[in-house]
Specification:
heterodimer, A: alpha/beta, Ubiquitin-like (UB roll), Alpha-Beta Plaits, Rossmann fold, 3 domains, 5-stranded mixed sheet, 4-stranded parallel sheet, 20 helices, 17 strands, B: alpha+beta, Glutaredoxin, 2 domains, 44% helix
Chain lengths: 590, 178
């Protein structure tokens, strides 16, 4: 059925637009630009900023186009002296309470408020500050909130509530004292925040940003006494190009590796290696649960936002989580044991840096239990407790890495492509697709099928779990054994599957959950903006990379075979248990 | 002294309040209002709010949002007596700022209001002074309320007397103006 259209006049010209749209969306559809600030497609439009005002014939005053439905025969003006003046005044009023420190701001050059000032030709800020100065919230290991830079657009509140169902923040106070706050203003680090960083991804200014760890990393790189190695998550190769000025979703694996080497990392490795390792451990764990009457459904544990979410809100279901650490943490543990031993490096000199599309990874690497390598070496090297080190030392987001590349003069787009170092840089197509929602499931099936049936899987593309539908399900046939599986992205969708589990009604054996919309490629640490069309382009690149990989099944990765032969011995074996598996804790919702 | 812990509202009382309003429109506001009323020091303490959140599944951030939006809700223990000065436009033009300043007799009061607070409780928890935007009694401006009783056309002498009455807390004398 053809969608219904309505006739509308915009600035004297007649147009047809889809029925049921707001004036703003209708205008964007036909290429008429109305400036806006607080509105964000698919996230929120709470009409707080007053920038998108237009004139509608017959209306008593200017209307906000982001919340006004277009209707048949409507006559709209998108610019006039009154409209232009209203937009400028509204923006000037916002600027009264916004710092003018653009030159030294985190979001300098990537700020919607700054762009809008340029667009509307703001030349002065005539109004005095009226709002009290609120404290910076740096209680979180992942995110920093600066209320002074907040323009109260409400996007962060909307994404936290409507997309993630976490509700860590909300509007508080009234009038001049209005602000975004956590429960009792305890700060993000002291409430049930999952550190997913979607708030930072949608923030138009620098009111919420990731905690910056880049300075210490540069110091370590310049320190000759340290060996600094880096791992890159699958989603970085389809995100960092964007952040360096290339096209949306550009696939830049080789350039990224070259750039990291130029930056001064001693070795450039790939989290995809430990993604493959995760598939081995998690695949065998699933088979063990299936054959020994273990807790089912088993749910993936790669996504640290999701882990903290279930620890806060569904502690009764923690047994359903796979005990596998995330690929990032497996990498740290393996790098500071297997790799250090193999290369004869003192693990205390080894610095492991992760490049992640994720802010929650900053929190994950500082979880107190994430020091398996220290325990591994403690007796062997007679280490003191005070010498404790984490498996992963630092996590940088895609955005932070882009800043480091710029700082060090990396000419990203023109670099010759290079390959990852061996052995922790060798990976398969199964590791690549961890970046997209459904990817872990697809990768797991490629291995589980062959392990269970003993025969090769003919069609490697499990298309039924690809795509951006909120919850996807599939029934797999492992040579007669039927396995019902589900894939969810966003915590709101995860909640649906968890409620089923807690009600004892879950029909699944295996569930994949990713915290962020679209999976890691839409992570809270990815370039801004991240929209659904950009996520799609990143996903296309991810599946292209997978299809181009000579090896596409984790268990066929030669470096994975080698690490089991030389070090781990068997999946779920003793060393795996010590280094690659973990436990979870019950957290309150406060 | 941590008043928050000592003065939490009994969970059985909160349960009863929740069940009485379950499913009604605006139930959160009504429940919060009654929980505050049930509190010994007439405020919403953390533990009671956390319990309320766990029982109603209304997120704590949202409860905090509501509690900080309405000046009716108190997040700190309130004094035994309340003295509310109207700071609406009519009362302001009739000198309600002077009345508020007169309450400087209460140590710390003037400093609190000058720094932008809208409520102040004396250290001995005897008196809470608050300001409100309007009582809707503009013809009688300036207006103050003592423990819910409204006084009109209040003068400096009268408000000082009212304050003195409350400080002495001599029951029947509390409401006398002279």
């Amino acid at each position: 059925m053809e969608k219904k259209k309505i006739n509308i006049t915009i600035d004297g010209q007649s147009f047809q637009i889809g029925a049921g749209k707001t004036i703003l969306e209708g205008c964007r559809e036909i290429g008429v630009k109305i400036p806006s600030l607080c509105y964000l497609k698919d996230v929120s439009s709470n009409a707080s900023c007053g920038i998108c005002v237009v004139e509608v014939k017959g209306a008593k005053s200017l209307v906000r186009s982001c919340v006004t439905q277009a209707s048949e025969g409507m006559e709209v003006k998108t610019h006039s002296p009154a409209i232009n003046q209203a937009r400028i005044t509204n923006l000037e009023l916002l600027l009264a309470n916004h710092p003018k420190d653009c030159l030294i701001c985190e979001r300098n050059g990537n700020c919607e408020l700054q762009d809008l000032c340029a667009l509307l030709g703001i030349k002065e800020t005539p109004y005095e500050q009226t709002k009290p100065v609120e404290k910076i919230d740096d209680t979180s290991l992942a995110l920093v909130r600066n209320p002074q830079k907040c323009i109260l657009c409400g996007r962060c509140v909307a994404v936290c509530a409507d997309v993630q169902s976490v509700y860590a923040i909300d509007f508080a106070g009234r009038g001049l004292k209005s602000k975004i706050a956590t429960w009792q203003e305890r700060g993000l680090g002291n409430v049930a925040c999952t550190n997913c960083g979607q708030c930072a991804l949608v923030c138009p200014t620098a009111a919420i940003v990731e905690k910056d760890d880049s300075k210490q990393i540069l110091n370590d790189i310049y320190d000759d006494g340290k060996i600094v190695i880096v791992q890159t998550a699958p989603a970085i190769r389809v995100g960092i190009g964007e952040a360096m000025g290339m096209s949306e979703g550009a696939l830049v694996t080789g350039k990224m590796v070259a750039a990291l080497r130029k930056l001064g990392f001693d070795k450039v490795f790939d989290t995809q290696f430990t993604a493959d390792l995760t598939i081995m451990e998690e695949g065998y764990e699933l088979i063990k649960r299936l054959t020994t009457n273990g807790t089912l459904p088993m749910v993936t544990s790669c996504s640290p936002g999701w882990i903290k979410f279930i620890e806060h809100f569904y502690p009764k279901s923690l047994d359903h989580l796979s005990t596998c650490k995330s690929p990032q943490q497996m990498f740290g543990a393996v790098a500071k044991t297997y790799y250090a031993e193999k290369m004869g490096i003192d693990p205390r000199r080894l610095v492991v840096v992760s490049i992640m599309p994720c802010t929650a990874k900053k929190y994950e690497c500082k979880r107190p239990e994430m020091n398996s390598a220290f325990h591994y070496w403690k007796e062997k090297m007679n280490l003191q407790d005070k010498e404790n080190f984490y498996d992963v030392d630092y996590v940088l987001t895609t955005r932070e890495l882009a800043k480091m590349f710029k700082l060090t003069g990396v000419d990203f787009e023109n670099l010759q492509e290079e390959d990852f170092d061996h052995p922790l840089g060798i990976s398969t197509g199964a590791g690549v697709i961890f970046a997209a929602t459904g990817g872990v499931m697809e990768a797991a099936v490629r291995t589980a099928y062959e392990v269970v049936t003993g025969s090769p899987l003919k069609n490697l593309d499990l298309k039924v779990v690809r795509g951006f539908e909120g919850i996807k399900e599939a029934e797999l046939d492992l040579n007669g054994t039927k396995l019902k599986v589900a894939v969810a992205h966003t915590l709101k969708n995860a909640r649906v599957l968890l409620d089923e589990i807690e009600e004892g009604k879950s029909p699944y054996a295996f569930i994949e959950v990713m915290t962020c919309p679209g999976g890691c490629l839409g992570g809270g640490g990815q370039p801004i903006p991240t929209t659904w069309s950009i996520r799609q382009k990143r996903a296309d690149s991810i599946y292209r990379e997978d299809s181009l990989k000579p090896v596409r099944k984790s268990h066929e990765n030669p470096a994975i075979k080698a690490i089991y032969d030389e070090f781990l011995k068997d999946p779920l074996g003793h060393i795996s248990h010590e280094l690659l598996h973990t436990e979870y804790v019950e957290r309150g919702i406060y | 002294m941590n008043a928050t812990v000592e003065s939490r509202v009994d969970t059985a009382i909160i349960d009863e309040i929740i069940s009485r309003h379950k499913g009604k429109p605006g139930e959160l506001l009504t429940v919060m209002e009654e929980v505050q009323e049930a509190s010994e020091f007439k405020f919403l303490d953390d533990a009671s709010m956390e319990y309320l959140s766990s029982q109603t599944r209304v997120p704590l951030s949202r409860i905090y949002s509501v509690a900080t939006f309405y000046s009716f809700f108190n997040l700190k223990p309130q004094g035994k007596h309340s003295l509310i000065v109207c700071r609406g436009t009519a009362c302001h033009t009739k000198g309600s700022k002077i009345l508020l300043d007169d309450l400087a007799l209460l140590p710390g009061c003037k400093e609190a209001f000058d720094s932008g607070e809208t409520t102040f409780t004396s250290e001995d928890k005897q008196i809470t002074v608050k300001t409100v935007a309007c009582f809707g009694q503009c013809a009688l401006a300036p207006v103050v309320a003592v423990d819910g009783v409204i006084y009109s056309n209040v003068t400096s002498e009268q408000i000082k007397k009212l304050l003195q009455n409350l400080q002495e807390d001599n029951k029947d004398e509390n409401f006398r103006l002279s």
